[in-house]
Amino acid sequence: MNVATHLLRDVYSNDVDAAIVVSNDSDLALPLRFARLVVPVGTINPQKNYLAGALRGSSTEGAGRHWWKQLAPADFLRSQLTDPVGKYRRPVGW
Fold it and tell me: Hey, what domains does the chain have and what are their CATH numbers?
């Protein structure tokens, strides 16, 4: 609920030119549909499951230039900091 509330607040107060939502929660379908009317929205599925059907849409609807991406394990691996970072090391097994 908080994600939806802040998304719509930011979009309708013109505080953002675009939005990215990282979720696969179909409860966000309606807020995303409203946000797509006003600004481009990127939707990132952080799970290995298929994107919830309710989160799908058309890249040209509303404001247009919307996009969807599903994160893969390789995406997370590429985002890891080097080890060590200063005096900090990754825990064993990470």
Answer: 2-78 (3.40.50)
Instruction: Indicate yes or no: pTM above 0.70.
Output: yes
* Cβ atoms 68, 43 nearer than 8 A: yes
10-69 pLDDT tens trace: 999 999 999 999 999 999 999 999 999 999 999 999 998 999 999 999 999 999 999 999
Q: In what order do the strands lie in the sheet with 19-22?
A: 19-22, 41-45, 67-70
Q: What is the DSSP secondary structure assignment for residue 85, as one 8-state letter?
A: B
Distance, in Å, from the CA atom of 7 to the CA atom of 43, rounded to the nearest integer, reads: 12
Query: Residue 33: which of 10, 9, 62, 5 has the closest Cα?
Result: 62
User: Which helix (DSSP H) or strand (DSSP E) does residue 10 occupy?
Assistant: helix 2-12
Residue 44 · residue 20 · CB < 8 Å: yes
| Contact predicate 57/34, CB 8 Å | no
